[in-house]
Amino acid sequence: AIVIIATAATLTQGAYGNVRLGDGLLVGLPAVGGVLAGTWLQQRIDPRTVRLLFAGLLTLSAVKLAIG
């Protein structure tokens, strides 16, 4: 579903001249690889471990936001 929304937004913003194709590809293509690798890995790890890792990521993000 996110691909459809992102594509629609990209086309709309592209029509306004707000899209830099090179930068978008530089970010977008590795992101697709990351999604595929993350999905593959998530299906092979115990769900509790995934939850704990995600909780750790959220905690680190909160600390970083709080510290600045």
Structure, described:
By secondary structure, this protein is an all-alpha fold. The mean pLDDT is 93. It has one domain. It is extended. The protein has helices at residues 2-15, 21-42, 47-67. The chain is 84% helix and 0% strand.
Structural descriptors:
68 residues, 3 helices, mainly alpha
Provide a count of the helices: 3
User: What's the SSE pattern?
Assistant: HHH
Per DSSP E runs of 2 or more residues, the count of β-strands stands at: 0
Mean pLDDT: 93
The assigned structural class equals: mainly alpha
Beta-strand residue fraction = under 5%
In quaternary terms, these chains amount to single chain
Number of domains: 1
What portion of residues is helical? Answer: over 70%
Secondary-structure blueprint:
Layout: H1 2-15, H2 21-42, H3 47-67
Question: Would you kindly provide a brief summary of this structure?
Answer:
With 68 residues, the chain is mainly alpha-helical. The protein has helices at residues 2-15, 21-42, 47-67.
